Amino acid sequence: MKIQHQVIISIGSNQGERLENIENSIKMVHQEIGTVIRVSKLYETPSWGFESDAFYNCALLVHTCKAAEEVLQGIFKVEEKLGRIRNSGEGYQARTIDVDIISFDEEIIETENLIVPHPRMQDRKFVLLPMKDLKTDFVHPILNKNISELINHCQDDSECKIVSDLKSPIAKYTFDRFNYIAIEGNIGAGKTTLTHKIAEDFNAKTVLEGFADNPFLPKFYKDQARYAFPLEMSFLADRYQQLSHDLAQFDLFKDFIVADYHIFKSLIFAKVTLGEDEYRLYKTLFDIIYKEMKKPDLYVYLYQNTERLLENIKRRGRSYEQEIPAEYLDKINRGYLDYIKSQTDLNVLIIDVSEKDFVKNQEDYLAILEEIQSNAFLSH
Fold first, then answer.
1. Which of 202, 178, 199 is nearest to 347 (CA)?
2. Helix or strand run (H / E) with residue 14
3. Closest alpha carbon to 346 in 274, 290, 295, 284
4. All residues at 6 or more sequence positions from 108 whose CB lies less than 8 Å from its CB, including other chains
5. Cβ of 130: how many Cβ atoms within 10 Å?
6. C-alpha of 379 from chain center
7. CB 312 within 8 A of CB 195
């Protein structure tokens, strides 16, 4: 399940410090619109459609949760900050910066403000050649041609020469120092969403908890005392089987794995939901299982205050979660924090996301990546 859109953006500049304009626009797209996954080489090309100085051009592959219109509005802001104000009748002319959406997934979009794929992309080598550098599997949804085919059929005979390489902002993150990251959090903290985003951006394998089909979960929320023990036992069995199976599919020395849970969450929830005698029996069984489990290189706990958790739970609309009391979420939070304090052999990173929205706000997402990056640096 992909939660982000794949967007290809073209950037050009032929006024002022062209390289600086290009680099600043890449940085701003990454900070405000979406994660810049790949950047093409920098090309110099003659002005197209008018007489002027040569352009510097490049293309970006961007992952974003924003809709196409939101990406367009973000582009307008980037251009404005870099000194360009668009107007409807400007036509071909020199400019400090020109940022265009070339493709949005493989959708066909036609609105008053936006046409995607870009209607003239197939006619312009300064768009197609940088796109080829991105090494995507893009196929034009109207022309039904891939990038190589579009280049072969392009009638543009302009000279487009490579000037230099450009750095992708994502290259600064050295997550390859970790093989296995577990992202944890309370109900509604966003751990699965963050797992998906990091996996998509860093080409990681995912291990996702399969909880929706647990037959005891809806019953538990209606009658906790009766269904707590069978619920926790079924969760423990499912998590053990799934983690053992999924981790066995990967090379724990070569693959980068991101999971949206860790087996220890079973003990945290059981301590909250079970009576004293049941918990003692449960922990005996858990300790046997826990010794066999692979420990993550980094354990990330997303702390979210209870008010925001309740808002998130209500927003995602799972019927059996709608009556979860605040007191229960408070106990789970305390259980996690108590567990974290007791762990001396686990690399733990607590990230407070109470004031963050890492889906809608790109800067919040990058702040989380920076915290993980800092841990990677300190751990080695």
1. 178
2. none
3. 295
4. 116, 117, 141, 142
5. 28
6. 23
7. no
pLDDT over threshold 90, residue 378:
no
Is residue 260 among the annotated active site residues?
A: yes
Under 8 Å between Cβ of 259 and 208: yes
pLDDT at 2: 83
Alpha-carbon distance of 18 to 23, in angstroms, equals: 9
Q: What does the pLDDT look like over 119-171, one tens digit per residue?
A: 999 999 999 999 999 999 999 999 999 999 999 999 998 899 999 999 999 99
* Alpha helices, DSSP H, located in the chain: 18-32, 68-81, 125-133, 147-153, 191-202, 216-222, 224-248, 265-273, 276-290, 306-316, 326-342, 362-379
Nearest residue to 320 (alpha-carbon basis) of 207, 242, 227, 183? 227
Give the 3-state secondary structure of 109-137.
EECCCCEECCCCHHHCHHHHHHHHHCCCC
* Helices vs strands, H then E, count in the chain: 12, 13
Q: Specify the pLDDT at position 78.
A: 94
Would the pLDDT of 280 be above 70?
Answer: yes
CA dihedral 30, 33, 34, 40 (to 10 degrees): -50
The pTM (predicted TM-score) of the whole model is 0.90
In the prediction, which pLDDT does 212 show? Answer: 57
% of residues, the chain, pLDDT over 70: 94
β-pairing, 180-185 vs 98-104, is unpaired
Catalytic residue among 98, 100, 260, 297: 260
> CA-to-CA distance for 350 and 371, rounded, in angstroms?
9
